[in-house]
Amino acid sequence: MGATPYIGAAIKRKEDYRFLVGAGNYTDDIALPGQTYACFVRSPHAHAKIKAIRKDKALKAPGVVAIFTGDDLAEAKVNGLPCGWLITDVNGQPMKEPPHPCLAQGKVRHVGDQVAVVIAESTQQAKDAAEMVQVDYDVLPAVVRAGEARKKGAPVVHDIAPDNICYIWGLGDKAAVDKAFSSAAHVTTLEFINNRLIPNAIEPRAANATYSRADDSYTLYVASQNPHVERLLMTAFVLGLPEHKVRVVAPDVGGGFGSKIYLYAEDVVMTWATKKINRPVKWTAERSESFVSDAHGRDHVTKAELALDASGKFLAMRVTTTANMGAYLSTFASCIPTILYATLLAGQYTTPAIYAEVTAVFTNTAPVDAYRGAGRPEATYVVERLVETAAREMKMNPVEIRRRNFITSFPYQTPVALLYDTGNYEATLAESLKVADVAGFSARKADAARRGKLRGLGYSCYIEACGIAPSNVAGALGARAGLFEAGEVRVHPTGKVTVFTGSHSHGQGHETTFAQVVADRLGIPMDDVDIVHGDTSKVLFGMGTYGSRSIAVGGAAIVKALDKVVAKGKKIAAHLLEAAEADIEFKDGAFVVKGTDKKKAFAEVSLAAYVPHNYPLDKLEPGLNENAFYDPANFTFPAGSHICEVEVDPDTGTVKVVNFTAVDDFGKIINPMIVEGQVHGGLTQGIGQALTEGCHYDPQSGQLVTGSYLDYCMPRADDVPAYKVGTKETPCTHNPLGVKGCGEAGAIGAPAALINAITDALGVKDIEMPATPQRVWRVCQENRIKAAA
Amino acid sequence: MTVKVSMTVNGKAVGAEVEERTLLVSFIRDNLRLTGTHVGCDTAQCGACTIMLNGRAVKCCNMLAMQAEGADIVTIEGIAKADGTLHPMQEAFRQHHGLQCGFCTPGMVISAIDLVKTFPNPTEEQIREQLDGNLCRCTGYHNIVKAIKAASTVRS
Amino acid sequence: MYSFKYQKAKSVDDAAKVISKNADAKVLAGGQSLVAAMKLRLAHPTDIVDLGTIRELSGIKADKSAVTIGAMTRHAEVAASAEVKKAIPALAALAGGIGDRQVRNMGTIGGSLANNDPAADYPAGVLGLAATIITNKRKISADEFFKGLYETALAQGEIITAVSFPVPKRAAYTKFKNPASRYAIVGVFVAESGSGVRVAVTGAGPCVFRVPEMEKALAAKFAPESVANIKVPDKNLNSDLHAKADYRAHLITVMARRAVEAALK
C-alpha cells in the first residue's frame, strides 16, 4: 500500500457485504421495546372541507393506543411544515406561503393528505381502526393541472392565493432578449409538458420515534437524506423542542433520489406522539401511501423559443414556464423551478441573452419538490430540445450547430447568473460520437428499415450546477439555510481512523469513496478507515446529500480536516524527530525529515498524541482529532454528451432504446466503478421519464390514476439497454479534490436525448413524454407513418 | 383468531402462533426478526421480498404464512455459507457493483439464483426478461445483469 | 387484510363442502391474485380453504392427442415441462410469460381460470385450444366456461381439478404487455387443428373472446396476410390510460398477424 493510490481505483464497496447477506439496518427493521405502530387516515378526496371527525368507534377497536387529529396538534401548538427557500417575485414581493399542517386543519387539499393518525399495538390493528375513523367531508371541486390552476374561476387551493399563484419570478434581461428576437433570422418554438414523476425509492419512507422520560429526550429513526436538517427544521420551526434533546438517526436508507430530503408530516407526528403515549411509535409507508404522499418531481408546462442568426448562432432564448407546486410547499419546492432551473438555461452554449419567467401554482395534488436532477433535467430538456429542433428546421447537422455555439473559454459568465469555472464540451461530444458509432448510424437505420422498424438518433449536451452551494450566494437567492458541509477526522491512538461526515449515503457508496480519499491522504490502508454518517449524536453537523454535492462539498470538508490532522502531525513528528517543523514532510503515510531517512510512521505519531510522554505539551494539546466545515466557493459544473439511438415499431408504437452512450465530465474521479453505477441509475431514471413514467391525476376527480406499480410504469431490466459510458476529466478549479459530482447527470441528460431520437425516427417535431407505445402509435397514425420497407 | 404455523427457515425448524391473516413476509420479518427480506410495495411487483420456498423463488409478501406450513424456506440470511463466505451470486453482485442502496438486493440475489437454475447459461436478453419480477431504482440494472451473467458461469 | 378463518383442505370434496355452504368463503390456490386483493382490502372472504396440500391436483399428463394439467400446477412447471413443450409449445411459452418469474413459481392454472381476470393469459390459451375444464362436478368446454368480467360457469361449490388441452397442428400466442403491470393489453392465441382454426383474444375486452372473421379467413388460408386487414370493432373493448379501445382494436390485428407468423415458424 502507498504505491498504488486509492483515488481513481475501482475499489469494491465496503458496504456491500452487509447488504448482500441481509444485514442492512433500515428504519423499518428497527423494533424497539414497547413498540407501537401508526397508520394515517388519509383523504380520499382531492379537495374537501372536513365537517367532522368521529373517532369514538375506532378508539374502542382492539389494540388501539391513541388517535390524534389536527385539533390535537393545534392545541399542542405544533406548527406546520416550513419551506426552506424564499422566492421573491417579479414585483419584489415574497412568495405566498400557505400553512402546511402536519394533520389537516379543516380542509384537505390532495388525495392522501393526512387527516388523523391511529396508533395501535400492531400495524394490522392500526389499519383496522383507521377504517373506523369517520370523517365527514364536504367535497369541493379540484384542480390538478398547472395550466388549469391559472385560469379564472379555477378552484382555489389556498385562500391566501386566490389566483392559485405562489409566485411569478423572472431571471435575465427581458428587453435584450425581446430585441434579439425581433431581428433574428430564425426562431424555433416549442411548447411542451415536462411530465410529473414519482420518485419511488424502493424503500418506502419510514419513521420510528421514541421518547425517554429519564432525560426528556427524543430519538427519531427516519429514512432521510439529511438527518441534521430534519432535526433543525423539526425542532426550531415545527415542534419547538430543544435541538440538543432530539437525536435523529438516518440508518441504512434504501434510495432517496430527492424524495427523502424533506421534513414530512409523518416524521413530526411520530416525534410528537411518542411523548404523548410514552412509547415508541413507528410508521412505515405502504407503497400506495408513498404514491400519494411522497413529494413528486418535475411537472412543468413550458413555452420555449430560441432565436438564431442565419448561420445557426444562438442569439437569445425566451422561456415561460408554469410549475406545479402541488397542494403545499414542500421543503425546497420553491427553489427547484427557479434557482435550479432558469440558471441552467445557457447550457453549454454562448447564448448571449436569456430570459425566463416562471409561475408557480398550487393545485390539488401531492407536493412537488426536488427529484433526481431537480430543475436541471427540465432546463436541459428545454435547451436540448430547442437546439435539436432548430438544427432540423435550419437543415443543419445537430452536432455542428452545437459545436458552433459551444462555450470554449473559461471562466464563463452566463447571462443567467452562473459562472462556469471550467469545462471542455468538445471533448465529451467528440468521444461520445466515437463510442456511439454515429458514423455507422445510416447503415443501421437502413437495416432497421428492412425489418420494418424506424431508427432515430438523438443528442443531448447537458450541463448541471452541482456541489450545492456557496452559502452566501444561496442566501442572497433566498435560501433559509447554509449549504456548507461538515466533517471530522478522529485518529485513534493506534493510527486507525474514524471519519464523521454530514453527507448521507443511501446508495452512493460514501463508506468506500470517502475512505479512499482518507486512506490516500493519510497513506494508510483503507481497512483502517471507517466512515460514519447519518446520526446527529455522532456527526457534528451536516447538510446532507442531494444535488450531487457529497464528494464536492462533504468530501472537501473531510480533506480540510485531514489537512489539519497532517499539520498537527507534523508538529508532533518534528518534536519526536528533533527537527524543525518546516523540515517535516508527510509522504506515503510517514512524517519524514526532508532529505533524510529519519521518519515516523503515521501510527507512531498518533500514538504519541495519545500517550504524550515525549510530547511538546507546553505548545500543543494532546490527541489527534480535527473537524472542518467547508463552504464551496462556487457551484461545480459537470457536463457531458449523451447520444441515444432508438428503434420504433410503428405497428405497435413500441420504442426500443437500442443504444445509449453517455460521456461525462465529472472532474476528478475517485472510484470509476461507483461513478459508472451512478450514471447507469441516472440514465435509467431519465429513460423512465421519457419513455415509461408518467404520473397521472384524473383532471376531474383529482384521483391519482397511476397510484401503484400496476399503472405507474417503473423501468424494468428489459426496458433499458446495456449502457456505453465514458468520462473525460476536466478538474474543478475551486475544490481541493477537483471533483464535480455525478449523481444526477444521467437523469438530466437522458430525456432530451431520447425524445430527440424518437422525433428523429418518426420525423415529427415533438412528442409528449412519456412516449408510451400508445402515444407513439397515435403520432404514427396522425402522421401516416408506416414502416419503411 | 390465531393458528399455529411451523416451517423450516434457513435450516432451522421454526414456529409461532400467528393471526390467520399473517403474511409470510410478516412472519419472517416480525416473528423471526429476519429483516433482510424487505417490503417495497403492496401489489407484489417490486420483488424485494423474494425468498426461496421449497427451492423456488417466490414473493413472500403475496402469500399467507399458512401457505408455507411445513415448507423449506431460505431467506437472504441463509444464502451465504455458515462461516460468512458469500454465495457465488452474492460475490458476483459485489464484484460487479450490482447493488447500491441495498434495499432490492436480497430479493434480487434470490431471484437471480433461481434464474440461473432455470436458465443455466442465460443470454443478456434472457436475464433482462427473466428479471421481470424485480425492481431496482438505483443501478439501472446494467451491473445486475453483468453480475448474473458472471455468476452463471461459476459452479456453486 | 381483514381477518378470516383459515383451513387446509384435505381433499377437493372437503373444500367444496366449505364453499358450497358459504358464499363468502374462498378457495385459495396459488393466491397470486386473491392474496393481493385481500392485502389491499379489496377482497374480504370470511373463510379461506387452501388447496395447497392436495397433491393429486398437481401434475402434467400428455399423450398424442391431449395434454392434461392439474389445477394446482404452477405456471413455471407448465413452462418448463418437456411434455408440454413437445406437444403444445405455444402453451408452454404462454405459461412462461405470465406475470413475472416469482408469480410463475406460485400461481396456478386453476386459480387463474377460476379468477378469469380480463387481462390474464391462460383464458386465451384455453379458449384458443378449445380445452376442457374439468371440475369436481363435470367437464366444461372452453366456449361455455368464460362468462364475462371475472365471471365463469363455475357454480357455487364447484372447483377446477384439471384442464385438458387437445394437441393442435400448430399454435402460437402473442402478447402486447401493459408496460407497467405486464398484464396483457392484448393477447392473441391462434391455433389450427383438425377441427379448424381458433383465434382467442384476451386483455382487449371484459372477457376473453373469439374472432370468427379471422378464424374463417385463416381456415381458408393459414397465413399472416389473411388477418392483416381484419379489424375488430372497438365498441366493446376496454379503454384505460395505457390503451384506449381503438388502440386495442388495432393491436388485436397486429398481434393476430404476428401470432400466425410465429405459428408458421
Describe this structure in words.
The complex is a heterotrimer of chains A (789), B (156) and C (265). With 789 residues, chain A is α+β, with helices and mostly antiparallel strands. Chain A has 20 helices and 28 strands. The mean pLDDT of chain A is 97. Chain B has a five-stranded mixed beta sheet, with helices on both faces. The longest helix of chain B has 14 residues, at 105-118. Chain B is globular, with a radius of gyration of 15 Å. In chain C, the strands form four sheets. In chain C, strands 4-5-10-6-7 form a five-stranded antiparallel beta sheet. A four-stranded antiparallel beta sheet of chain C has the order 11-12-13-14, sandwiched between helices. In chain C, strands 1-3-2 form a three-stranded parallel beta sheet, with helices on one face. Chain C is globular, with a radius of gyration of 18 Å. Chain B binds chain C through residues 1, 3, 19-21, 23, 42-45, 47, 50, 53, 56-59, 61-64, 66-67, 69, 111, 114-115, 118, 130-134, and chain C through 1-6, 8, 28, 31-32, 35-36, 38-40, 48, 50, 52, 74, 76, 80, 99-103, 105-106, 181-182.
Main-sheet strand order of chain B equals 2-1-5-3-4
Global Rg of chain A: 27 Å
Task: State the total count of DSSP E strands of chain A.
Answer: 28
**What is the number of strand segments of chain B?**
5
> How large is the radius of gyration of chain B?
15 Å
Structure summarized in a few sentences:
Chain A is α+β, with helices and mostly antiparallel strands. Chain A is 28% helix and 23% strand. A seven-stranded mixed sheet of chain A has the order 3-5-1-12-9-10-11, sandwiched between helices. Chain A has a five-stranded mixed sheet with strand order 7-15-14-13-8, with helices on both faces.
